[in-house]
Amino acid sequence: MDEQESERTGRGGAPNTPVTPDAPDAPDSAAGQEPADAAPATGPGPARSGPAGPGTPHDSDDSLAPEGPEGPEGPDDTSARDAGDGTGDTVARTKEEAAAEKQRAATASQVHHNNVNQYFLGALNSSEMHFGIGAADSAHARRRAVGRLDAGEADAVLASYVEPDCFDDAVTALRRDGVVVLVGPSGTGKRAAAVALVATVAGGSDYVVLSPGRSLEELANGRVEFTEGVGYVLLDRMREGSAATADFDWRRVRDTVREHGAHLVVTTVHEVQGRAPDAVRHVPWRAPDPAAVLRVRLVRARCAPETVERAVDLMPAGCRTAEVVAAAERIGAGAEPDVVWKEYGSNAAAPVREWFAAERTPQEWAEVTTLAFVTGAGFRDVETCQQRLERHVAHAFAEPTDEEAAEAARRAADRRLSLSRNTLVTVEERENGALTRTALVFAHQQYRAWVLRELWTMRSTAYWDGVRDWLSGLLRDGRADLEMQLSIAQGLALLTPSAFEEVVQNYLHPWASGVAGPAGQSTATLVLHCMCLDESLAAVALGVARDWARSPDPLVRSTAAAAFSGQLGVRFPTDAVHTLLRLTGRGGGAAFALAGLVAVLAECRQDTGAVFRPLAYRLRAQRDLLAGRAKEGVLDAALTVLRARDARTGRPVCADVLVHSPGQTEKVGELWAGVLGNLPRWRRAVDGLYATVAALPSACDDPDPFAVRLGRAVGTALRPDERPALTAGLEAAVRRAERTGPAPAHLIHLFVDAVLSTED
Fold first, then answer.
1. Which of 43, 469, 631, 747 could form a disulfide with 648 if both were Cys (CB 3.0 to 4.6 A apart)?
2. At what angle do helices 402-412 and 362-373 cross, to 10 degrees?
3. 3-state SS, residue 233
4. pLDDT at position 111, please?
5. Is the pLDDT reported for residue 6 higher than 80?
6. What is the pLDDT of residue 588?
7. Is the pLDDT confidence value at 355 over 90?
8. Residues 240-260: tens digit of each pLDDT
């Protein structure tokens, strides 16, 4: 199983990545035309306008008619098709044009979503972007949340683990049943406890983290391949099914795990509804002693004894385990305890609660609400957004008296002075090229979450209806660039723990359906990406995206595809790939999303095989079947993934995968062979394969071994009668490329020789 293997530059943020459709690949008499089905280029930087490698030729739109084995050297009938003969070609061409237009629209949509994904990844590396969500740093956020737990990760968890008083009960239950469920709120250390439990009981060193989307049925019926001696952890399990069948379902899971000699620990925030299942113990989980957690971590960090005791004495009330761990890391790195503790527990909440405890005017309410969603903008943008918000929420306040109206008018005339007096707000100077700009932010990052909690607690539905209409209007009117969209998304992600249903029902689902236009769809996906930065919200984001993927609305499904092609797909690659493959036959840009996911996984140095393996399996399973929607969908997805380009370098993503992840060469070769075996796609496959081999010199210093390795992989997977046709097609491509400049003849010949060497 995979889990086991596993448009502009924003203001002061990371640059937005321009993304363009797949650049032309192979030489043709109609050079310069772009294929209608071209995969989007994806990557962390601007797209190159030039070729990706020496002699990279151009490609025409060959999707209108199948080609014979002569491939790219065959006669060009484009002009004849275009001219028509008065016998129905015009009607056929109209249908083709409509299909091409639809394809271009889908490509443009996915290009936009790839821009959004790359902007988000760039923002993770920007020190000026205030996420304030969870404790995930950039490196952590770029790793999968499922699959085998690295030995180093497990050791890091176990070395500093402090057992709570309920730990022994869970150990007893796990030893007896093989399965135990930990039930408790976020921030109580359930993740570390799950690893510690399987380490204590299973006795091995192999740990596998399962997707929170796994159902009890999948756990019981063999969809998860439990292995003897391995400890399995399923974090943040989603609520599912009826409580009436819970005991029966858990009994099946328990029996399956026992039968395989494995152990499984499940964590969830959902309390048991009604009677708890008898088959599997559900242990109410309590956090370990925070002072003990702090001491252990500071001692391991080799802090002086006086520093340890001072940090323990200064620790404020109300700190969650996750906050204690984050604070300990900072203190262990040399930060002063009194400075660190200002940002955690009750200390972080106190200034915010004091501010809200005072009598506030509608303008002041609007000030903090605006900043909660539009953080990091300059004075003009904040003031403009605030003015719009005040109009939307005016009905939520009592009609002002004449005196109050006069005072409000006076304050409105000097909003900037009012902002400067707000104790929760500060001004940062941010570098913007050679210049600096002012950015309004909260005085401490933690204030933002507490402001949103207080707003949700203290303001009525009428006020929040106004906030919803205000944010939707900003997105729909095109006033929000990518930086503002990301800021809005951060605010909604921070609001989710306090108001999950509000966020999902009034923002995410409507925006995913296009109510607020393309910017609304983008922001909805960014909310899910931001949730992935918080361990306790990542599973929530996965659940929302899975719901979108099941929607009958094609716009909602396309938003789901976009979400799975970015950060959500990095965190949960197995779920992303299975969902996108299921959507490939239903439109919505699923094939482009798969290509985007491969590019993002490659950039994050994650396992691109999460896409290649299941795609190759499906292609192999359907290779000898007659054409059908399912087969066509898989073929299109495979070809789109293989031809995807990195917008930063302009070269095919597969070229980088072959160099940086050589273990994927066999699966990549199998995919190329699969699409080469399909006659209607043969020419585009040859063009894409030529471009990939031609790009290898720009991806590494010594491309020869990679070309040979790929040639052997492709040759092994091809049928005997397909190898000569591929050889002829590639040699023809070299000859045509040589007409306009140098061509990578040496590499292509190495590749072809490697293909032919597999005949024996």
1. 43
2. 40
3. strand
4. 58
5. no
6. 65
7. yes
8. 665 656 788 899 999 999 999
In the chain, the domains with their CATH numbers are 7-134+572-760 (no CATH), 163-284 (3.40.50.300), 354-459 (1.10.10.10)
| 264-548-107 Cα angle (round to 5) | 120
For the segment 244-301, what is each residue's pLDDT rounded down to a tens digit? Answer: 567 888 999 999 999 999 999 999 998 877 777 889 999 999 999 999 999 999 999 9
Q: How far is CA 340 from the centre of its chain?
A: 31
Amino acid of residue 535? E
**What CA–CA distance (Å, rounded) separates 132 from 106?**
34
The tokens describing 327, both together, are 């604070």
Show the tokens assigned to 465. Answer: 């209806």
Q: Hunting for tokens 């995968």 — which residue is that?
A: 657
Instruction: At 355, list the tokens.
Output: 């501010």
Q: Residue range 227-237: average pLDDT? A: 92
Residue 303 scores a pLDDT above 90: yes
> Percent helix, strand and coil across the chain, each rounded to 5?
60, 5, 35
The first and second tokens of residue 625, run together, are 């079947």
pLDDT of residue 306: 94
557, 549 Cβ separation under 8 angstroms: yes
Q: Which two tokens stand for residue 480?
A: 């929000």
The residue whose two tokens read 């605030």 is 386
Element housing 431 (H / E) = strand 425-432
Which among 377, 562, 394 is positioned nearest to 479, based on CA atoms?
Answer: 377
Residue 742 to residue 738: CA distance in whole angstroms: 6
pLDDT at 593 > cutoff 80:
yes
Mean pLDDT of 301-321: 93
Half-sphere exposure of 275 (CA within 13 A, CB side): 7
**Residue 611: CB partners within 8 Å, gap ≥ 6?**
573, 577, 594, 597, 598, 601, 641
Residues 477-493 have a mean pLDDT of 93
Crossing angle of the two packed helices 461-476 and 517-531, in degrees rounded to 10: 120
Six token digits for residue 247: 């005991």
Residues 6+ apart with CB under 8 A from 67: 74, 679, 680, 682, 683
715 vs 673: CA distance, rounded Å: 8
CA distance 549 to 563: 10
Give whole-number Cα distances, 115 to 9, 40, 266, 751, in Å: 11, 10, 36, 34
What is the pLDDT confidence band of residue 23, given thresholds at 50, 70 and 90? very low
Rg of the chain over Cα atoms, rounded to whole angstroms, equals 28
Instruction: Identify the DSSP state of 13.
Output: S
Chain centroid offset of residue 451 CA: 27
- Across the chain, mean pLDDT equals 82
